[in-house]
Amino acid sequence: MSKTPTAVPVGAIPTPLYERMEAISTTKSWANWAGYISPLVLDTVEFEYFAIRNQSTLFDISPMHKYRISGPDALKVLNRLVTRDVAKLRDGRVGYALWCDEEGMVIDDGTIFRYTETDFLLCCQETMYSWLLDSAWGFEADIIDESHTIAGVSLQGPTTFSLLKEAGLGAVEDMKPFDLREVEPGLWVSRTGFTGDLGYELWTAWDDIAALWDRLWAAGGNWGLRAIGAEALNMVRIEAGFIAAGVDFQPVHTAMRLHRGRSPLELGFEKLVHFEKGHFNGRRALLQQREDGMKHHLVKIDIGGFKPADGSLIYHRKKKEVGHVTSGVWSPTMKQNIALAEFKAPYGKAIQDDLWVEIYVNEEGQWDKRIVPLTVVDKPFFQNARSRATPPKSF
Amino acid sequence: MGQHDTYDAIIAGAGHNGLTTACYLAKAGLKVLIVEKNDWIGGASVSRSLHDGWTYSNCSYVCSLLRREIVRDLELPRFGLQVIPYEGGASFTPDGDYFAYYSDHDALRREMFRHSPADVDAYERFSQTVIRQCRFIRPFLLRNAPDPSSLRPRDLNELLFLLKKAHGLGAKELGETLRFWTMSIGDFLDEHFENDLIKAHIAGAGIIGTGLGVYSPGTAYVLLHHYMGDVDGAIGAWGFARGGMGAIANALGACFEEAGGTIVTGSGVDQFLVKDGKTVGVALENGDTYQAPIVASNMDVKRTFLNHTETKHLPEDFTRAVKRFKIRGSSGKLNIALDSLPEFPAAPKGSPFLRGDMHCSQSLNELERAYDDWKEGHWSKDPYFDMLIPSQIDPTLAPPGKHMMTVFVQYAPYDLEVNGVRSGENWNDETRKAFADCVFDKIEVAMPDIRKHVLHAEIRTPWDIEKEVGLTEGNIFQGELTFDQLLFNRPVPGYAQYRTPIDGMYLVGSSAHPGGGVMAAPGANAAREILRNIGKGDLMPKHAA
User: Fold this and answer.
1) At the fourth CATH level, which superfamily is domain A295-377?
2) Class of the domain covering B87-116+331-412+415-460
3) Which of A9, A273, B234, B491 is a Cys-bridge partner for B301, taking CB atoms 3.0 to 4.6 Å apart?
4) CB-based contact (8 Å) between B84 and chain A?
5) Shortest Cα distance from A373 to chain B (angstroms)?
């Protein structure tokens, strides 16, 4: 018997929502996200951005990797995997988490959905299947890759609650930030997102997501619903102070060069490293780092002037190079020139004065250099009470 | 008996400029009081609910000029200000067509081609000229206009800055600049474009707020004044303040109060108090008096000095100049609550340009005729209007599925002519309704069934605007934006730079450089001048490049 292999597709392939997005895309600007066709911009970055901060937006998050971790030891597996204490996460809650290799370097970050003590979903950027299998050694737990069976959309913006109500999903009314609930059979909603604004993520079976999209779309008319791409989303996530894998840190498993890894402490997540919970991957190394001090600091900065500083180098006293901007954007909502930046310790933390960003600007074929001051900021740039209000406001 | 408190500075009028000055002074540590005649703050930057469930931006209605340096200095987003841009616009025709001013560049080119192939490239050159002029003028907005007769180092520096910028243009461009600053928008557009509808669409920005026609010299600059703003650096873009224009005043008010300032509403200034040529405070209409060595008026220059300051304190030439200062009301407004979005038979449903500024003017000649009516003391029989339905973008303005429409109308006279008598008193319910009917008739060009959607309409004439807001003759810019009243001539020659003949008294509203629009630049510049004069200039924030 000779086998007839099925040839795998070459290049990016559509998600179940591609047809919807293709029909409304005026820019035809697509990216490859984990092998899927994902929009960078559907219409204009500007109006997509403002829809997130003013109305409602839909973004296809189906390409996210999703792993089901279930069984009697599921909690133990997760607690061994990530740095935070998952035992403190209640049923029906979602938690942001990072996980490390044995050297304490971050492999990826993501969200843990806790259905019950024996049933979790881990949602992240990178493929993580074999690492999860390794983490589950010796435990009684099953790891199932649901990346291609569960699809999701992110519904974000100040009118999203009103929109859900109009779509017949008003049951989310009493859901607090990070709550998770099955609002209809097979339809899970979490009050989560990557925007720092009011918003929800809706999860359902791969084959049902297009119908869900249509249902939300039909309810969106009065609420200014727009589909958006990754560029607008990137602006709001910087405003919210969220880090992006591969941008603000390099997932250590995919970095080819040595010393590209960063620890959760260096990325500013001390509060999500729970040493007291017992052993977890990287614990020893992180304890050591806490003792010896960090090599880097990732911090939020507010930069003078108006020119976005993405990729710029940072100097102390305008002379010594001490860091660089990892994500920078002009914030149209806050009217600030904001960024995330990585410093060589102790700059950015113990030394915050006399720091300067060197920004290159191309003004129609003529390059110009701007040296502008920066201020280290400890809170998210964008904070708005509407993102936390429960029940949510109507706009 | 009334209040007799003493402050470091008093601001008369809680318009957006007065609030801006007040914020900077309070943040510099001064004890500041704002007095406001209305029960609410904002002046012409105001949101009001006049029909249950609806919010109207019932004076100014869109935002572009508000300097982002100021928004940033005062952290206005933290106090709730969110500016949302809108896209494009359109002009509708009686035969069922339209010209759509798409924000998408490719679509705009195609649309222009549909109407007039030659105008496609003409538009590129037009844009280049306008943008270059904008780039030239923008750096002056947050600087003092130099006093060319002064030998103070600061004035010489400012003058040098102006000369350098002008010199940098080169002979040809400088010549074009001078033409641009003095010519009419009609002539300028005739030089570039062929198509009447396209010209009419663009010309609106040259006349909004002025008592001038499209062929009056100086209107090209007025267009520039409407183009030189930006939303996040996109020059010429316009947006809405979420929650209406009052959101700007409210954010400024919250910033001011956080900085320790006090606002007293409900009684306006009766007299600016002067002793030995120095300002000493204000007396309010309710009898209260407040003392301060610094008093800044957010009222226009005419109202400040002709109505509320004793003339004996002012030099004769100054009073004469203030009297001749041109400040003519020319615009009215309809604020309308709609039960649903009206039909636009010409436009595909959901077209993006319906969310922008809409017009029904067909040609420059029609616009010029509209001006002729106004000169005679009538509202235009065939009016120009700038019409938007911001509730399509801002969800806070109307209940779901319902809408708020703002219609800025030109021309409407301040002193309406009836039976040979010109007087503001001629504006009454009957004439207001006739004026509104005339506007609705023309709106029907775009939306034939508009009338049956109207739940409530507020009709505002220049007379009403003067009565409520306090702007003399209802002029929205606190004085014409013509070259004779700009830069070091604004408001009057010899008294630019926010100073007045009275020691310690300043002018911080749009009567001062760089003029009208919800820009806040006069207010910020005035604050810098005041702080400098009391030796606290270093407390004014400086802006990085």
Assistant:
1) Aminomethyltransferase beta-barrel domains (2.40.30.110)
2) alpha beta
3) B491
4) yes
5) 8
Question: Which residues of chain A approach chain B closer than 8 Å at the C-beta?
Answer: 26, 44, 46-47, 50, 53-55, 158-159, 162, 166, 222-224, 304-306, 330, 332-336, 370, 372-373, 394-395
CATH tag, B9-47+60-84+242-325+479-539: 3.50.50.60
For CATH 3.90.660, list the domain ranges present in chain B. Answer: 87-116+331-412+415-460
Query: What is the ipTM score, two decimals?
Result: 0.94
Backbone angles phi, psi at B60, to 5 degrees: -60, 150
For chain A, 395 residues long, give each residue's pLDDT as a single digit of tens: 688 999 999 999 999 999 999 999 999 999 999 999 999 999 999 999 999 999 999 999 999 999 999 999 999 999 999 999 999 999 999 999 999 999 999 999 999 999 999 999 999 988 999 999 999 999 999 999 999 999 999 999 999 999 999 999 999 999 999 999 999 999 999 999 999 999 999 999 999 999 999 999 999 999 999 999 999 999 999 999 999 999 999 999 999 999 999 999 999 999 999 999 999 999 999 999 999 999 999 999 999 999 999 999 999 999 999 999 999 999 999 999 999 999 999 999 999 999 999 999 999 999 999 999 999 999 999 999 999 999 999 99
> Which stretches does DSSP call E strand in A251-312?
296-303
Residues comprising chain B, all counted: 545
Specify whether domain A18-64+148-239 bears CATH 3.40.50.1970. Answer: no
Helix/strand/coil for A331: strand
- φ/ψ region of B437 (left if φ > 0, alpha if ψ in -120 to 50, else beta) reads alpha
Q: What are the residue ranges of CATH 3.50.50.60 in chain B?
A: 9-47+60-84+242-325+479-539
B76 contacts chain A (CB < 8 A): yes
Q: Are B400 and B391 in contact (CB under 8 A)?
A: no
**Residue partners of B386: CB distance under 8 A and separation at least 6:** B204, B208, B357, B358, B359, B407, B408
Chain A nearest-CA residue for B234 = A46
Answer whether A84's CB lies under 8 Å from A107's CB. Answer: no
In Å, how far is A151's CA from the nearest CA of chain B? 29
CB-based contact B85 A47, cutoff 8 Å: yes
Phi then psi dihedrals of residue A213, to 5 deg: -55, -50
Are B387 and B234 in contact, with CB atoms under 8 Å apart? no
Q: Give pTM, 2 decimals.
A: 0.95
CB B256 within 8 A of CB B19: yes
**Fold (CATH) for A65-143:** Alpha-Beta Plaits (3.30.70)
Asked whether the beta carbons of residue A44 and residue B72 sit closer than 8 angstroms, the reply is: no
Strand partners, A374: A303
Residue B299 makes CB contacts below 8 A (sequence gap 6+) with B12, B13, B269, B308, B470, B509
Check A54 against B76: CB less than 8 A apart. no
Question: Which bin fits B103, alpha (ψ -120 to 50), beta or left (φ > 0)?
Answer: alpha
